[in-house]
Design goal:
Length: 912
Amino acid sequence: MGVTKDYLRYNLSGTCNIIASTNGVLVAITDSICAVAACENVYFYNLRTCEKKIYFQFGLKTWMISKCDLNMIHLFYSFFYFIHYILIGFSDKCEFITFSGHKTGVNCLAFSPDELVLASGGKDSRIVLWDIVNECGLCRLNGHKGCITNLQFTQNGHFLISSSKDTFIKFWNLHTENCFYTLTDSRSEVYTFALLKNDTLLLVGTAELEIRIFQLRWFAECETYDEDLNSIDRNTEESWSDVDGQANVIFYIVCHTLRYVRCKKLGHLFRQAKGRAVQIAFSADERIFTCLGASNVVDIYRIYSDDERRKRISKKLRRAKKRACERGETDTLAENDVAKDITTIISRIGDYRSNSKFFALQANNALNFVVATANFKSNKIEHSILSNLDKLGHRYDIRCLAMAENDFGFASGSSECAIVWNRYSLKIINMLEDDAMKEVTAILFVTGDKHLITGTAVSSGSLFLFDLATNEALDFRKKAHSGVIWQLSPTPDKKGFISCSADKKLIYWSYELVKDMFKNVLSFQSRRILELPDEALCLAASTDSRLISVGLLDNTARIYFVDTFKFFISLYGHSLPVTTIHISSDCKLVITGGADKTVKIWGLDFGDCHKSLFAHNDIVTCVQFVPNEHLFWSAGKDGLLKQWDADKFEQIQVLSLHSAEIRAITQTNSGRYLISASHDKSVRMWELSEEILNLQEEQEIEREKEYEKRLIEVEDIVPGEERIVEADLAAQKSIHSIASAEKIINAVEIVRKEMAAKGDNPYEQHNSLVQYMNSSSFDFFILDIIQKIPSSHLEKSLLMVPYKFVPDILHALGTCISKYYRVELASRVLMFLIKIHHNFIINSSELLPTIDVLRKSVPLALEHLKDVCGYNFAALRLFKKQIEARTETNFFADVSEISTKENRKIKKKTAV
């Protein structure tokens, strides 16, 4: 019997470098504290002290903060077709709700004014409405043909406005679930919009360099709109003649649109920012709003009140009359003509002065606290940055990593600097910067871990030597290579290092001490140069100091003898350039990763290829052996980190928390800790745990995931039902809804078996599941099983139940309703089943008695439930009055009055 080998699982130990995710939204809590989403975490920063106050950690990838205040925080995780909604109280445990309704990622979210309905817009051009209380989907709105960019409820949640990249803005009636008006004025993609002045002013930001402004007039249900209909041009019979019998249809559509809202374009304002409009935000008093563009410019505008607008109109009239008198003209502008000028409503402000504060999240992993001052008399603005979080991490992508010899920390390099991190606390120890050091592409700790060497891509491959005690650059070699330095590696004897570059050279460097004034200073000198046939992209040295391997741009890897630089073997087999290479500790194996998405395992004795693995779905960026093992890690631009067995050619485990391509990896000398850096701005540390992996179980889990994915992709079709264009079921098929449907089917089959067995042997013991549910009857048992299904998956689960099980369910529901058992749930399930199986039910003679009984019992049961709720509500109101009369206080106090009184007390104490 062969010896089996146990593999241990790696778990996430910590995350650093990331300040905030650019797609996670920034929310202000107070005037100095803000909340941001950073990968799977939510951070709270105090921008006055530049410290991280508290944070919440979750096991998912990317979060979006919808809204936040001092007591509660609303979070959303949207990945693929799932929306995970979390409501967190800072003193209570979080509540977790899962909604499945989109085929792709969720792009925007919006709450109704009462915070009971959630609208989600996806990249699949669908809008889904969710009931937060009932935890289920309300409907799916299918009208747009592009990615949904923004959503907003209006008119107390009765209507919803949506924008999309298809250039349209649509107005939806949530009661009838249809689009009653489409705004088609934009000629390019609509990215954002905002409603001001009680939803009567619509600001639209597009890909063009202008903000379009519309006036909305909303009509109440009892309000007449005859004067608006009379404004429609029906004077000429030719324009409204019944051409092909469609004139009345056109007039009906126009009337239907004017029933709810009338939209009128007022004009447009030009932006100074280049590129598309990203976001429109306005102050609480709606006097100032800002438009964020794709560039680094924020346009600031002022909104005038009615009094200010009248003053501006009269001022413009006086100026117009004065100019007309100077030119000797008799015709003057009327007041209505001047009022059409959009600058009388909104105008762009120049330089900044105001007592406003705002937080700015930048794309380069930076968060700024900005104070702004506005002078409304002169329309001038001034702004200044009070504080920022620039010193908490890199501004740009990390290109390289290096681990210290004693494993106390690791170093990372990016475009602007190099940072040394403490491995235990994941905090910054040193930040190394130099005016000449740009685009750090390679990094290395010098023997002893007191110095650091960096290689750059700018200035034709320069080398910098830093002293970690003083953060000063001790030595600088400009143009050490005539091309980009791609990698630095220590020599096995630790007396120097090796560098490879795009200039087709591999250089050996040695350390030496140079006298400087009163002390010796560390420096380095080039000793040997190896000329290569093509550009070098990576290198690896064997631990026995015998061989050196280099990955080249010509799709091959070459191995040379170290002592003579004599060519040994060439490893050819990649169809694209070799991007990474590494040699095992026992010098028996070498692994290469290429741009062809494969990892190849080679024997170092003869250069034969042992195995070629299709490792990643994108370019392989890093490979590295675990010390003293034939296990190795591979990372790619698909964001996955995988561990492999080089002897058995098996995949051991996959680490998939990164949401973007992985640029670099490194590990400690013991292999217990692994560090990875990604394009998502995060640096993650993985720790080896004591959990043993079973490869067969892991492979079975992967196969189950693939099978579940195929099941989800199959669409369900209701027999005899035509697909509705604008509205549909909200829920999307998921593995949870499939499992719930199987539970319902299993419950019906158990009841059938129990009923058959009861006829043969009435004293036979019931099924274990029936005993566990402790249901008083089999009909109650079926409804109890349905009650266990999450409300968000119920409708989709019932849709997947075959019709042959429906008669049993209808019979059980009729019995439950007649006995007033879970009447609300039973009625909901009953109405949905009758809707989707209507054609079969009306043609089934067996179900006629059941339907006739339900026709009589359902109204009685619902009326009884309504009476019970009304009786309880009346009793609660009576108890409230009794408590208020006994205590002489209001049962529910006004929170705003309490906070006002507390603020007054604080001011009095401060004054004393």
